[in-house]
Amino acid sequence: MILCIEQVLTPEQLDEIHRILKEGEFVEGKLTAGRYAKTVKDNYQLKADTEDAKKVRKMVHNALLQNPLFKASVRPQKIRPILFSRYEPGMSYGWHTDNAIMGDGELVRSDVSLTLFLSDPDTYEGGELVIDTSIGEQSFKLPAGSMIVYPSTFLHQVTEVTQGIRFAAVTWVQSLVRDVQQREILFELDTVRKSIFEQYGKTVEFDLLCKTHANLLRQWVEL
Ligand SMILES: O=C(O)CCC(=O)C(=O)O
Ligand SMILES: [Fe+2]
Q1: For 2-oxoglutarate, which residues are the binding ones (predicted)?
Q2: How far is the C-alpha of 57 from the C-alpha of 88, rounded, in Å?
Q3: Is 61 exposed, middle or buried (0-12, 13-18, 19+ CB in 10 A)?
Q4: For an engineered disulfide with 155, which of 13, 27, 76, 132 has Cβ 3.0 to 4.6 Å away?
Q5: CA 132 to CA 153: how far, in whole Å?
Q6: Backbone angles phi, psi at 126, to 5 degrees
């Protein structure tokens, strides 16, 4: 399940993040890449251990947790610290897979990868996120403040930025429900149940859907 979620950040939050990214100190992105991904990763990342970096990480982390679509589709259990990347002309991140296990203290299994686009697409050329899905390569370049969430199982790349600057926030999530198909079934049941409730109220059908949803979640959840 690949999902684009719009307006994860307000224009005010985007302005504040841009203010901090403009002044922030950036380091080589290779520092946080796995052994093989390092060889194709060419970007900068906001230095992680400053007050400003903490502030923007928290802002995006909270925005994720408050987003109903993100919560219902991803079912986050653990979220890795958010990385803020900057691609200048000539920079790209070639084909790679994200590490399955991340972190050195608390380990996180990457079930879902996400990119929150921070730059207006009109301000840079290139810089598409391309995902190699079962129906071929799919290319994404979303409006600032919108995000794409996709299973970490896919090969993907960021194409070369040829003009302007691409800022993005990326992170990885361990889901309460490891299997992508099970997550999708729960997400769709939840969507239908919400719509039935809005249209007809708490009917017998609604109650049955709630029961099925809860019982499937009980079977599939990993705590
Ligand atoms: O910036 C992006 O859209 C994706 C970056 C990425 O694939 C990664 O950091 O592993
Ligand atoms: Fe990646």
Answers
A1: 166
A2: 22
A3: middle
A4: 132
A5: 10
A6: 80, -155
| Superfamily the domain 3-175 falls into | q2cbj1_9rhob like domain (2.60.120.620)
Confidence class for position 34, pLDDT limits 50, 70, 90: confident
Name the percent of the chain lying above pLDDT 90. Answer: 97
Task: Please give the ipTM for the structure prediction.
Answer: 0.99
Residue type for 154, please?
F
**How many angstroms does the Cα of residue 11 sit away from the middle of ligand 2?**
26
In testing the pocket of ligand 1, which one of 36, 97, 113 has its CB within 8 Å of the most ligand atoms? 113
Asked whether residue 86 carries a pLDDT value surpassing 90, the answer given is yes
Token couple for 202? 């708490």
Check if the beta carbon of residue 145 is closer than 8 Å to that of residue 8.
Answer: yes
Produce one character per residue of 63-73: b if its CB has 16 or more CB atoms within 10 Å, e if not: bbeebebbebb
Asked if 128 and 158 touch (Cβ cutoff 8 Å), the reply is yes
User: Is the beta carbon of 129 within 6 A of some atom in ligand 1?
Assistant: yes
Joined together, the tokens standing for residue 184 give: 């999708």
Where do the structural domains in the chain lie, given as residue ranges?
3-175, 180-220
